[in-house]
Amino acid sequence: MIGIICAMRVELDRIRENMEIREEQECSGIHFYLGTMHGKELVTAVCGIGKVFAGICAQTMILMYHPDMILNVGVAGTLTDKLDIADIAVADKLVQHDMDTSPLGDPKGLISGINIVEIPCDERIVKTIAECVHELHMNALVGTIASGDQFVVDPSRKEFIVREFSGIACEMEGAAIGQVCYVNQTPFCVIRAISDSANEQSHMDYPEFVKLAAANTANVIDLFVQRIRIG
Ligand code: SAH
Q1: DSSP character at residue 15
Q2: Is the pTM of this model over 0.90?
Q3: Given Cys at both, which of 8, 87, 138, 173 links 83, Cβ 3.0 to 4.6 Å?
Q4: DSSP H helical segments within 27-173, as ranges?
């Protein structure tokens, strides 16, 4: 089974259009939709905004359905001139840019307990997603996606994320889902279409481009589900 988590309805609606939904179940305030796409079993959910809701959703999904993999799909702000509005950022690793115990001598972004800064994505999933975006002639970049509980518009924050973590895109959920998948040993990846430039224009760009961005990721997911081998 493939698990798909989006933060917002607008991000999941287009994906669900290609899915035959069989059943809906609710747990922890989250609605899980079970069904198939191209003959493969899927469980999808809208988790809500930010790292805590994302973590709740990922852990609940794993305990209830034991998915073979989890994809976090949605929109993000770009941190590089190589990614423009509607282009695709594919994570090969995730960081939490607002995790900071550096006053105690730790590296910035260190997740104490598992003691890593970068949460690695599943290589096979990353490779398959990269092949799909190439086949769809989309402009895409593979790299580090940075998550934090803030909508990034401040240039100095953007510079910090690029300098410290070499982030290519910023959003608010991916690394929380990544942390949950890491501790549960569930393969995962994050795929985000660019909705804004993470700058003073973002509050204008974001509402305008979020639907276009969501449509692009839905096309990637449709092809990915056809291509990926499960089990
Ligand atoms: N109250 C709004 C909040 C949206 S937050 C609502 O409920 O719709 C923006 C969402 O888009 C988050 O899920 C985040 O992951 C993503 N996102 C897009 N651009 C972003 C940016 N520049 N910085 C951080 N997150 C961004």
Answers
A1: H
A2: yes
A3: 87
A4: 51-65, 123-135, 155-165
For a pocket test of ligand 1, which of 85, 95, 97, 172 has the largest count of ligand atoms closer than 8 A to its C-beta? 172
Ligand 1 centroid to Cα of residue 115, in Å, is 27
The span from the CA of 197 to the CA of 153, in Å, is: 8
For 203, residues 6+ apart whose C-beta sits below 8 A from its C-beta are 153
User: How many Å from the N-terminal Cα to the C-terminal Cα in the chain?
Assistant: 9
User: For residue 172, which atom of ligand 1 is closest to its CA?
Assistant: 15
Residue 164 appears among annotated catalytic residues: no
Expressed in angstroms and rounded, the spacing between residue 151 Cα and the centre of ligand 1 is 6
Cα dihedral 148, 154, 157, 161 sign: positive
| Mutate-to-test residue for ligand 1 from 171, 192, 205, highest number of ligand atoms within 8 A of CB | 171
* Residue ranges with strand state E in the chain: 2-6, 20-27, 30-37, 40-46, 69-78, 88-96, 119-120, 140-147, 167-171, 188-196
Q: What is the mean pLDDT of residues 24-34?
A: 98
Pocket of ligand 1 contains residue 152 by CB under 6 Å: yes
Indicate whether 142 pLDDT > 80: yes
